[in-house]
Amino acid sequence: MLSRARIAVLVSGGGTNLQALLDARQAGKLPHGEIALVVSSKEGAYALERAEKAGVPACALPSGMEQADFEQRLQALLERYRIQVIVLAGFLRILSGAFTARWPERILNVHPSLIPSFCGQGMYGLRVHEAALRYGVKVTGATVHFVNEIPDGGRILLQKAVEVLPGDTPQTLQRRVMEQAEWLLLPQAAAQPLQFSFMVHSLQFAPHIELILNTPFLWMPLKIFPTSGTQYCRKWDSWFFFALRQSCIQTHFEDSEAALCLCFCLWFAS
Hints:
Layout: E1 5-11, H1 16-26, E2 33-40, H2 46-53, E3 58-60, H3 67-80, E4 85-88, H4 97-101, E5 107-111, H5 126-135, E6 139-146, E7 156-163, H6 170-191, H7 196-202, H8 210-213, H9 220-224, H10 230-250, H11 256-269
Parallel strand pairs: 1-2, 1-4, 2-3, 4-5
Antiparallel strand pairs: 5-6, 6-7
């Protein structure tokens, strides 16, 4: 049986988005994830107190650290707590391309606009809402997306629109976007069934399936001929199930049902 993904939440301030996740956890609305760690880029952030009250391990990394040192310390923490998914919840530090490449489509971020509007380098916090009001947009909102080497450039998962009202200030607009979009979207994204890349890393036998993933003849036909008919796919599907099961037997992995489950995920993802 697939385990729940161990989630680390990265924060920098008060932790209102973190609280939304903690509330969702308390309400049983995170069936596929477990908040296992909170890391702050600033010492004394109130988000750390929220984590402590919820019984979640939390720590802060000194804000003055060089990028390489910061990410090295962060990676060590993630490995120590066996983290599989990272959620950026008001995290005001850009992660390098080298770091995000180690976590492909396993880092989620919530951004307070409808990407691709008002996003990218330097667009965070009140700056986003100031820009929205300056341009005179009538609708703004929030976006949950995967994180890659481009700021706010990863694949979009969820979006929710929020109306801009007459007389709005950056502060009032920020609050409404939080209440009507961010605090709803982030728990929804964390509650979704795990993506294929998450599932691979959450399985105990992940090291053993690298052979399968790196053996193209097992699953390339499904990639090359995605619409070639069910009969052809079934033939390769049967061989793929057999090959994966044999690989698990050879590596002394005893849970054949979980192996078949993973095989189905690989086939479906292809």
